[in-house]
Design a protein that fits this description.
Elements (H helix, E strand, L loop, with lengths): L2 H17 L3 H10 L15 E2 L2 E2 L14 E8 L12 H5 L7 H4 L23 E4 L4 E4 L3 H4 L5 E8 L5 H10 L9 H9 L9 E7 L26 E3 L17 H22 L2 H24 L6 H7 L9 H13 L4 E7 L7 H25 L6 E6 L3 E2 L16 E2 L3 E6 L7 E3 L1 E2 L6 E3 L2 E2 H11 L9 E3 L2 E3 L15
Parallel strand pairs: 3-9, 3-10, 6-14, 6-17, 7-8, 7-9
Antiparallel strand pairs: 1-2, 4-5, 6-13, 10-13, 11-12, 15-16, 18-19
Helix pairs in contact: 2-8, 2-9, 8-9, 11-12
C-alpha cells in the first residue's frame, strides 16, 4: 500500500469511528457481551478487530503444520556435551590440550583467551541411547529420555555470536544488534491474534538454580522493534499483579473504567486527526486489550482447578509461581486459549565454573516439566499443531575454563556447535539431526544456522520467511535478514 492510500485509509476509518455512537470502546465492550456489535467492521491491516488483531498476511503462503509456538528458551548456553552430544573421546583424552588443528584459530572470549592451555574434558555424567533414533541423552535428564520418540534433536546448531547479549538477541530477533522486532512480534504482525481477550505474544520468566545470579535478560528481547507497539510481547509475572498496570486503581469501578477509556479514546481520536500518527491507534487498541485482559488474565492463570494428575506430571515445583514448571503449565493454558507465541525464558545455564553440580541442579529445574508439557499437549490432541522448541543461544567448549580437577570443571561459550530440540507442529519426531566431530568442537554433518532455524519455524507456521517483510528506513526487513534455508529433513 502506498503512503497516500494508507493515509486515506486511516482518515476514512477515523471519520467512521468519529461519527459512530460507540467507537472502539463500544466495540471492545460489545466483545465482552458476545462480540456481535460492529463485528468485522474494523478489518484493516494490523488493526484491532472484533475477533482480535488481524495480521498483514491475508492468506498463508502454504498449508501450515503448526498454529502456535511454545519456545522454552534456556538462557545462558546449556552445555550440549553434558546433556545431548555424547563424546567418549573427551573422557579418554581428559586433560590433554585441545589440538590446534581442531580449534582452527577460533576466536575465544576474554574469559579463556589468556589461558596457557585448553585441557579437554568430557562429561562427568553417564549417557544412554533412547528411542528408535538412538538419541544420546544424559543421565541428568531422566524425564526427557522418556520422550525421545517425540522430539527431534538437532546437534548441529551454530551461530556467529560468542557473547550472551548479541547471541540471545540474534536468536530472538535475527540480528545481533538490538532494535529489530522479536520472533513473537513478527508472528503477531504477520498472523495477528486468534484470541480477542489475550495478547498474541506472551512472555514468562523463571530463574534457575544452576546459576541464579547469572546473565540478566532485557525486555527488548520481546520488543516490537520498528513494528507497531501492538506487537510487543506482554510479560506475565509471578507477583500479585501478573501483568503490570492492568488492575484499576483504588476507587475506580468497572463502569468508571469504561467511561474513562471512552473519554480517552475521544481525546486520542482528536490527536490522530491532527497528526495521523498510527501509534495513537496502537495506544487505543492497547488500552482496550488491557480492559479485556482484566477479565481474561485472572481466568487463565488460575490453575486451582487442574486435576492432581497434572500437578504430579509437571512435578513439585508446579505449585510455586514463577518456576519453570509453573510457567510450563501456564504456557499450556495460554496455548489452549489461542495465544500464538508463548516465550519462556529460563535463566541460569551459564556455567563457567562448578559445572557438574550447577548443571545438575539446572537440569532438574526443567527436565520433568519440559517432558510433561510435551505429554500434556499430546494427550489433549494439541501437540500436532503446537511447535515446541527447547534450547539456548550457543553451546559450551570441550575444554575446561579455569583449573581442571578430578571432580570439577567449567566450560566457556562455544558458538560453533550446540544442541536444540523441537517437537510437534510438523517436526519429524524421534529423530537426531546433524553431527559434530569426535571432539564435539566442529560440525561435520548438516549444519543448521540460526537463520535456518528461524526460516524453518516460520515455514511450519505456513509462512515463507522471504515474504514476511516490513519496510523501514528505505529497505525491507525480515526475521531472517538476507539468509535462511529450510531444513527439510527435520520436517514431517
Amino acid at each position: 500500500m502506498n503512503p497516500f492510500e494508507e493515509r486515506s485509509l486511516h482518515l476514512n476509518r477515523r471519520a467512521f469511528l468519529g461519527k459512530s455512537a460507540v467507537g472502539i470502546g463500544g466495540a471492545a465492550l460489545a466483545s465482552l457481551l458476545g462480540g456481535t456489535l460492529l463485528s468485522g467492521c474494523l478489518r484493516t491491516n494490523n488493526e484491532p478487530t472484533a475477533r482480535g488483531l488481524e495480521g498483514v498476511l491475508k492468506a498463508l503462503h502454504h498449508a501450515p503444520k503448526a498454529k502456535r509456538v511454545i519456545y522454552l528458551f534456556q538462557s545462558g548456553g546449556p552445555s550440549q556435551l553434558d546433556l545431548y552430544d555424547y563424546k567418549p573421546l573427551l573422557n579418554k583424552r581428559r586433560g590433554e590440550d585441545l589440538p590446534d588443528s581442531v580449534r582452527g584459530g577460533q576466536r575465544l572470549t576474554g574469559m579463556t583467551s589468556g589461558q596457557a592451555t585448553f585441557p579437554l574434558v568430557g562429561s562427568q555424567f553417564g549417557f544412554k541411547q533412547y528411542g528408535d533414533s538412538g538419541a544420546w541423552i544424559s543421565d541428568i535428564l531422566p524425564y526427557t529420555s522418556k520422550i525421545a520418540d517425540e522430539i527431534c534433536v538437532i546437534n548441529s546448531m551454530y551461530t556467529e555470536a560468542i557473547n550472551h547479549d548479541p547471541a540471545i538477541t540474534f536468536f530472538q530477533t535475527g540480528s545481533q544488534q538490538p532494535g529489530r522486532p522479536s520472533m513473537g512480534s513478527w508472528l503477531s504482525y504477520g498472523l495477528g491474534s486468534s484470541n480477542e481477550n489475550l495478547p498474541a505474544f506472551t512472555v514468562l520468566l523463571s530463574r534457575g538454580t544452576g546459576r541464579p545470579n547469572g546473565q540478566p535478560l532485557y525486555s527488548r528481547l520481546w520488543g516490537n522493534g520498528f513494528l507497531h507497539s501492538l506487537h510487543q510481547g506482554v510479560q506475565f509475572r509471578s507477583a500479585k499483579d501478573p501483568v503490570l498496570y492492568l488492575n484499576d486503581p483504588a476507587g475506580l469501578d468497572r463502569a468508571g473504567r469504561r467511561r474513562m477509556l471512552d473519554q480517552l479514546e475521544q481525546l486520542n481520536a482528536m490527536e490522530h486527526e491532527r497528526t495521523h500518527d498510527p501509534e495513537i491507534e496502537s495506544r487505543i487498541a492497547q488500552y482496550e486489550m488491557a480492559y479485556r485482559m482484566q477479565t481474561s488474565v485472572p481466568d487463565v492463570i488460575d490453575v486451582s482447578k487442574e486435576p492432581d494428575q497434572i500437578y504430579q506430571m509437571y512435578g513439585p515445583d508446579v505449585t510455586t509461581p514463577g518456576t519453570f514448571a509453573a510457567n510450563c503449565l501456564l504456557a499450556r493454558r495460554l496455548a489452549e486459549k489461542g495465544v500464538r507465541f508463548i516465550q519462556l525464558y529460563h535463566m541460569g545455564w551459564d556455567q563457567h565454573e562448578n559445572l557438574p553440580s550447577a548443571i545438575a541442579r539446572q537440569a532438574k529445574d526443567v527436565d520433568q516439566a519440559s517432558a510433561a508439557l510435551i505429554l500434556d499437549l499430546k494427550q489433549r490432541g494439541m501437540l500436532d499443531d503446537t511447535l515446541v522448541i527447547w534450547g539456548g543461544e550457543f553451546g559450551r567448549t570441550n575444554y575446561s575454563q579455569g583449573i581442571l580437577t578430578d571432580t570439577n570443571y567449567g566450560r566457556d561459550h562455544h558458538p560453533r556447535c550446540f544442541t536444540m530440540w523441537m517437537a510437534g507442529g510438523g517436526v519429524k519426531s524421534g529423530t537426531v539431526y546433524g553431527k559434530t566431530d569426535d571432539f564435539g568442537y566442529n560440525i561435520v554433518e548438516n549444519p543448521v544456522h540460526v537463520h535456518d532455524f528461524q526460516a524453518t519455524m516460520l515455514h511450519l507456521l505456513g509462512i515463507n520467511h522471504e515474504k514476511l517483510t516490513y519496510r523501514y528506513q528505505g529497505r525491507r526487513f525480515r526475521l531472517t535478514d538476507v539468509e535462511g534455508h529450510l531444513v527439510h529433513d527435520i520436517m514431517a
